[in-house]
Specification:
Structural class: mainly alpha
Number of domains: 1
Strand content: under 5%
Shape: globular
Number of helices: 15
Order of helices and strands: HHHHHHHEEHHHHEHHHEH
């Protein structure tokens, strides 16, 4: 598979629109005299998700509750685990969770306990995805072949004609592929797409220690406590639903009708803000529960322009970006609801299955 280093994109200097957006966002924080990092809203949410996860885990593994109750707990565990990923790990690895870097590192490594290596994720997400968004052969988030075709320039196979129907199954496999296969592949090759992943001694230790911890937490202890059959059923429910939730939330921001999916040649030398806005969408901006649960990832435009600003500030930043983009007649794609974004996502999957370039 051909891959290209994201460094080769070489974005141009900021446009007048980008400079104005940046200046107004900085002025907002200066005038309000508030930090760009997380606040009590984020910290209290982190405590809630951690306590919820471990409470669920305890009753799921160590209690004698009826089977149907434990099935519900598996689903509940998905809610708390995804909240940790969306709100704590994501902000932490972007350095926006706290003003203190050591707290950001701890928050960022919260995903390691769930089986997903944070060091590899930083290269995959912060460096590659945030720069090469929707660029074929660069962005690892749109590389799901042969199961899915997520870019106009990717080869279409017969099965892709039906990807708009089987996408929930494909997304449900994400978590298992991520923690049980892809992390190891990227670790041993020390590459994510065309980008080198650099491991220091501590990174090697953390990788193996976190994988062993994951094995005991999600496989060894549950099998010993509830038996293989009950563990297998519960792990399948948990892992497939978590994969579905994580994939859907992230893909609604990029794989929808109305966004650009440029080739490397089309993206190379473009202006960074314009590239990010044209390849990224928001959804359900007025839905407070969704914004709270997914860590502001429904404000994906704001996140891609200002990844080091905590998601708790995105609703206010959105107002600034919207106003400036309207001034410059630069379109923003914002879906009023989750349902409309999902409909567009399914439609885009259908388009990609039928009409590749």
């Amino acid at each position: 598979m051909k891959t290209i280093s994201v460094k080769e994109l070489k974005f141009t200097s900021k446009s007048a629109m980008a400079n104005e957006i940046t200046a107004e966002v900085n002025a907002y924080f200066n005038e309000k005299n508030i930090s760009k990092k997380g606040n009590w809203k984020l910290f209290s949410k982190a405590i809630f998700f951690f306590l919820g996860f471990w409470t669920n885990y305890y009753f799921l593994i160590f209690s004698d509750l009826p089977v149907f109750v434990k099935a519900i707990l598996c689903i509940s565990l998905v809610f708390f685990a995804s909240g940790i990923g969306f709100c704590i790990m994501h902000d932490g690895n972007h350095g926006s969770f706290s003003k203190k870097e050591w707290i950001n590192k701890i928050a960022g490594k919260s995903s390691d306990s769930l089986g997903a290596n944070s060091h590899i994720w930083v290269t995959k997400h912060n460096i590659i995805h945030h720069s090469g968004t929707n660029v074929n052969h660069v962005d690892d988030d749109i590389e799901a072949r042969p199961l899915l075709c997520l870019h106009d320039d990717q080869p279409r196979y017969l099965i892709h004609r039906y990807q708009y129907l089987y996408w929930p199954i494909a997304y449900g496999l994400l978590y298992f592929l991520w923690v049980l296969f892809k992390d190891f592949l990227k670790y041993f090759t020390q590459k994510v797409m065309g980008e080198k992943v650099y491991f220091k001694t501590w990174d090697h230790i953390n990788f193996w220690a976190s994988k062993v911890f994951f094995y005991f937490l999600f496989i060894h202890i549950p099998i010993n406590k509830v038996g293989f059959n009950a563990w297998f059923l519960g792990f399948m429910i948990f892992g497939s639903l978590l994969g579905l939730v994580l994939s859907t939330i992230f893909q609604l921001a990029h794989i929808v009708r109305g966004l650009k999916h440029p080739s490397f040649g089309e993206a190379k030398g473009s202006e960074r803000f314009e590239h990010q806005i044209s390849t990224t969408a928001n959804f359900a901006p007025q839905n407070k529960f969704i914004a709270w649960w997914v860590g502001g990832l429904n404000f994906q435009i704001e996140h891609h322009l200002f990844p080091k600003i905590s998601h708790v500030h995105y609703p206010e930043i959105h107002k600034i970006i919207k106003r400036v983009c309207e001034k410059y007649n630069f379109p923003l794609l914002v879906f009023p609801s989750f349902g409309l974004a999902l409909e567009s996502h399914i439609g885009k999957l259908k388009d990609l299955g039928k009409n590749p370039k």
